[in-house]
Amino acid sequence: MDCAKVKEFLYRFIDNEADSTVIAHIERHLKDCPLCEKEINKEKKLDCLIREHFSKDEAPAHLREAIARRLQVKRQRQRYLLGLFILVVLIAIACIWFTLMRFS
Questions:
Q1: CA separation (Å) from 58 to 47, 51, 52, 64?
Q2: d(Cα 103, Cα 100) in Å, to the nearest integer?
Q3: Rounded Cα gap, residues 1 and 88, in angstroms
Q4: What is the CA angle 51-55-57, rounded to 5?
Q5: Alpha-carbon distance 18 to 11, whole Å?
Q6: Is-contact 53 46, C-beta < 8 A?
Q7: What burial letters (b/e) apply to 40-52, b meaning 16+ CB within 10 Å?
Q8: Going by C-beta distance under 8 Å and a sequence separation of 6 or more, which residues neighbour residue 35?
Q9: Quick one: pLDDT at residue 90?
Q10: How many degrees, rounded to 5, is the angle at CA 81 between CA 76 and CA 85?
Q11: pLDDT tens-digit map of 31-75
Q12: Which DSSP string do the residues of 49-76 spell out, in sequence order?
């Protein structure tokens, strides 16, 4: 693997998203290329700084509760509409059946 390929996979390598073959090639390349090793170490440090200073904040409780309520209402509405649909289909089947029985 050359330096250009290492740069292509740099962020996937740092984020542990590269496959094992790519990781092995990059690690082999880093043993022989101090410039790429320096670049990767710099990016890893930057990644750590960003993760430390921009931690994942949790949404406020009132917002989480409001979202949960809306999702619950949406699920109830979907269940109601599904039930209504099933009822309409059953009525249609019954009408067809009665019609067929009448003309038999």
A1: 20, 15, 15, 9
A2: 5
A3: 64
A4: 155
A5: 9
A6: no
A7: beeeeeeeeeeee
A8: 3
A9: 97
A10: 150
A11: 999 999 999 999 999 999 888 887 677 889 999 999 999 999 999
A12: HHHHHS--PPPPHHHHHHHHHHHHHHHH
C-alpha–C-alpha distance, residues 30 and 2, integer Å: 10
Number of neighbours of residue 30 by Cβ within 10 angstroms? 19
- pLDDT category at 104 given cuts 50, 70, 90 is confident
- Residue written as tokens 């496959």? 19
Q: What is the DSSP letter of 8?
A: H
Integer Cα distance of 98 and 91 in angstroms: 10
CA 103 from centroid of its chain's CA atoms: 56
Find where tokens 């029985």 sit.
101
What pLDDT score does 97 carry?
A: 95
